[in-house]
């Protein structure tokens, strides 16, 4: 039975005036791809001194999209630095997708910009000025190389579309916003983009036994590089894609010195040293690791295992499995960590007409402490600034 709004208002007031070690609330944004929704979720930890009403609840939902009669599939979501608005990628455009900005308080659409085919994961630079959205290009039967869109947040203008590779996925900047990382699911590559120059700076092969730097494509006429899998003139090659690893996520470490990549097909996590551009570790995971998140304190790495619907916690000092936590539903998807490294929030899509779910993981106790139902096919998740 839902907790009355008045009770939640009182609890939030108490959280604001209580000591720092008592009650603290967290707010998240969660996409529901099959319902064209973004949910605003609030979580208040249940501790010994907490009052009744703690746990997770959906505060409100936002209807998102460009065409009201179509299911357009909101995929990635990120909050503005001031917490007053949020950005969401709309994957199923005609033919291309969109990046939309909404006001958090009113739900009003503030801006929109067309991107490439199937824009998916999105990230925001530390200054809050530039958004980076991967164009996943999922529905292209030829699996042509795709791109990374760079959008100016203030004007909602695409200022660059950087050619990358086949089926890029994951979109994460290093802590200083100098480098952007994504994986190529059909090319077994980690792609590093120089944020200042807005071009691919380095490539790394993730195929088992073939790990290491990969030469950049030839520079085409006019000074731009051809994407992976094309000639210097931009013509599509017939090279057979490699997806032994099939990377679905690239997560920089808290200090930016390492990048962790989820090999969804080979069931592994690969650690790459940024300075030397070499592989430093490769370890086995449960089936189908999908998304990753690193704790801001640099101690833990979390992974969702898509098929089995589990969340694993890894200690980064020695790549030890700390916990393997069953999700409330199947098909685990997104994962984020609170800025204080205290909690993780994982989305689970569910199967068929199942509703989506958000599971809350206590990173001190390594246990699931709350769960909340959201819209169908829950995917993208982001923590709002506190």
Explain how this protein is built.
This protein is mainly beta. Helices cover 3% and strands 49% of the residues. It contains one helix and 29 strands. The protein has one helix spanning 5-17, and strands at 26-32, 37-44, 55-63, 74-79, 85-90, 98-103, 109-114, 119-124, 130-135, 145-152, 157-166, 168-173, 179-184, 189-194, 199-205, 212-214, 247-252, 258-263, 268-273, 278-284, 289-294, 300-305, 310-315, 320-326, 332-337, 343-348, 356-362, 367-374, 378-383. The strands form seven sheets. It has a five-stranded antiparallel sheet, with no helix packed on it. The protein has a four-stranded antiparallel sheet with strand order 3-2-1-29, with no helix packed on it. A four-stranded antiparallel sheet has the order 4-5-6-7, with no helix packed on it. Strand 25 (332-337) and strand 26 form a beta hairpin. The longest helix has 13 residues, at 5-17. The protein is globular and about 60 Å long. Mean pLDDT is 89; it is low at 1-8, 13-21 and 230-240.
